[in-house]
Amino acid sequence: MDKNMYAIEVERLTKIYGKGETAVTAIANATLQVKPGELVAILGPSGSGKTTLLTCIGLINEPTNGKVVIDGTTVADEGWNSGIDLKRMRREKLGFIFQAHNLIPFLTAQENVMIALEINHLTKSEAKGRATELLVSLNLGHRLNNYPSALSGGEAQRVAIARALANKPKVILADEPTAALDTENGKNVMTLLKKLAVENHSAILVVTHDHRMVEGFDRIFQVNDGRITGEKSNLEVWASHELG
Ligand SMILES: Nc1ncnc2c1ncn2[C@@H]1O[C@H](COP(=O)(O)OP(=O)(O)OP(=O)(O)O)[C@@H](O)[C@H]1O
Question: From atom 27 of ligand 1, which residue's Cα is the shortest distance away?
Answer without folding.
Answer: 46
